[in-house]
Automatic annotation (TrEMBL):
<dbReference type="Pfam" id="PF05697">
    <property type="entry name" value="Trigger_N"/>
</dbReference>
<dbReference type="GO" id="GO:0051301">
    <property type="term" value="P:cell division"/>
</dbReference>
<dbReference type="GO" id="GO:0043335">
    <property type="term" value="P:protein unfolding"/>
</dbReference>
<dbReference type="GO" id="GO:0003755">
    <property type="term" value="F:peptidyl-prolyl cis-trans isomerase activity"/>
</dbReference>
<dbReference type="GO" id="GO:0051083">
    <property type="term" value="P:'de novo' cotranslational protein folding"/>
</dbReference>
<keyword id="KW-0963">Cytoplasm</keyword>
<dbReference type="Pfam" id="PF05698">
    <property type="entry name" value="Trigger_C"/>
</dbReference>
<dbReference type="InterPro" id="IPR046357">
    <property type="entry name" value="PPIase_dom_sf"/>
</dbReference>
<keyword id="KW-0697">Rotamase</keyword>
<dbReference type="InterPro" id="IPR036611">
    <property type="entry name" value="Trigger_fac_ribosome-bd_sf"/>
</dbReference>
<dbReference type="Pfam" id="PF00254">
    <property type="entry name" value="FKBP_C"/>
</dbReference>
<keyword id="KW-0413">Isomerase</keyword>
<dbReference type="InterPro" id="IPR037041">
    <property type="entry name" value="Trigger_fac_C_sf"/>
</dbReference>
<keyword id="KW-0143">Chaperone</keyword>
<keyword id="KW-0132">Cell division</keyword>
<dbReference type="GO" id="GO:0044183">
    <property type="term" value="F:protein folding chaperone"/>
</dbReference>
<protein>
    <recommendedName>
        <fullName>Trigger factor</fullName>
        <ecNumber>5.2.1.8</ecNumber>
    </recommendedName>
</protein>
Length: 445
């Protein structure tokens, strides 16, 4: 067997393999003889079909099977001998498969990048810390009351916080535009659902009023054709409703699955959930920050095949989140560009974390795995059943082990970095992290 390797571009490799004709002919002959012993053909007794007849009837299919088997065996040996790590399934092109001649094929695939991790000790990390204060708890309970609130029509002018039912039609330079019209839409004033100036322009309006609002679409508006455009909206107010917050009573507590239907018990449970969410959010933000710095520090080529796979995963997650797990929505309807940056980041982090694990010979901590399972189980009514289920389900157990391994990597990276603790409010702590601002240097690139 002869092997040659060519780097075509970046991480792509072309491996040309030549297999002597003698081996192919021998393997075909063996397979023909085996088939002759079991073949059943009219006019011949079982096991007595002549080899010549078998070869004529089944020779082409047998040769194809042999060639496929030879490709599997020789390509595995070739990549092992050449120390190549394929990142995707290879595409195979036959160069010569004529009977009696040496068999030659070309396998094209991407390889994993060679990674030499940079020193992490100079990296500066801000570790956020926060606590749930009484005012945070009160604000959360107020939010929960609003979620269970009722709306009652009132015969007065609309105030901030009221809900109005409206019909509206928008124009730009006297022309209607897509998405600029609606009927019977409920809008809470002050919710910032609409573009600036729209909601504030309806404060003071009563049922039956017709108003004309002059507004400007923000430069950051999602529709390119509307960014920065001045618009007029003709609005008719059908009704005005005031909000009545839910009472803190047994019925209210029952809506949240509370066994102890008292205000003190409810507050204690809400605080516990807030503290759990706070811990998880701070941990996730810290992990994102550290892994983002790891990617910045280690510029690596990422196999396109892995990026495409991750884009498909993100597409599936998006469809499940917004359309439900049983949706038949075509994933390809979602543009790849929507997920490209996130996919590259995820794959980069995955490759770097795996390299860090290998370089530092990190083994998963089984005690931490069980602790994680117990913490997860505490959120369910029957914790022990959840614990037993995770430990008896290898796929789910593998997921927990992977998360724990990530945490162990995080701990080691933090131990070598320059970490400063920054105290923030609960509200700021649980806010989604904002994308990093583009620097002038980035923009120039």
């Amino acid at each position: 067997m002869q092997v040659s390797v060519e780097t075509t571009s970046g991480l792509e490799r072309q491996v040309t393999v030549t297999v002597p004709a003698e081996r192919i002919d021998q393997d075909v002959q063996k397979r023909v003889q085996q088939t002759a012993r079991t073949a059943r053909l009219d006019g011949f007794r079982p096991g007595k079909v002549p080899v010549k007849v078998v070869k004529k009837r089944y020779g082409k299919g047998i040769r194809e099977e042999v060639l496929n088997q030879v490709i599997q065996e020789t390509l595995f040996k070739a990549t092992t001998d050449e120390k190549l790590q394929p990142a995707n399934s290879p595409s195979i092109e036959f160069k010569n498969d004529k009977e009696g001649e040496d068999f030659e094929y070309v396998a094209t695939f991407e390889v994993y990048p060679e990674i030499e991790l940079a020193d992490f000790s100079g990296v500066e990390i801000e570790k956020l810390s926060a606590e749930v204060k009484d005012e945070d708890l009160d604000q959360m309970i107020e939010t929960l009351r609003k979620q269970q609130a009722s709306w009652d029509e009132v015969e007065r002018a609309a105030e901030d916080g009221d809900r109005v039912k409206i019909d509206f039609a928008g124009t730009i330079d006297g022309e209607a535009f897509d998405g600029g019209k609606g009927e019977g839409m409920d809008l809470v004033l002050g919710s910032n659902t609409m573009i600036p100036g729209f909601e504030s322009g309806l404060v003071g309006a009563s049922a039956g009023d017709e108003k004309e609002l002059d507004v400007t679409f923000p430069e950051s508006y999602h529709a390119e054709e509307l960014k920065g455009k001045d618009a007029k909206f003709a609005v008719k107010v059908q009704s005005v409703s005031a909000q009545t917050l839910a009472e803190l009573n047994e019925e209210f507590f029952s809506n949240f699955g509370m066994e102890e239907k008292t205000l003190d018990g409810f507050k204690a449970e809400v605080r516990k959930n807030m503290e759990r969410e706070l811990v998880n959010t701070l941990k996730m933000k810290l992990k994102d920050q550290v892994f983002r710095e790891l990617v910045k520090l280690n510029s690596i080529d990422v196999p396109a095949a892995l990026i495409d796979n991750e884009i498909d995963n993100l597409r599936r997650q998006a469809v499940q989140q917004f359309a439900g797990p049983d949706s038949d929505f075509d994933l390809n309807m979602l543009p790849k560009e929507m997920f490209q940056e996130q996919a590259v980041s995820r794959v980069s982090v995955g490759l770097l974390v795996q390299e860090f694990i290998k370089a530092n010979d990190i083994k998963v901590d089984d005690e931490r795995v069980q602790t994680s399972i117990k913490e997860l189980a505490e959120t369910y009514q029957e914790p022990q059943q959840v614990i037993d289920w995770y430990n008896s389900n290898q796929e789910m157990l593998n997921q927990i082990q992977s998360l724990v391994m990530e945490d162990q990597v995080l701990d080691q990276l933090l131990a070598s970095a320059k970490v400063s603790e920054v105290e923030v409010s609960y509200e700021d702590a649980i806010k989604p992290a904002q994308p990093e601002a583009e620097t002038e240097e980035d923009a120039a690139e």
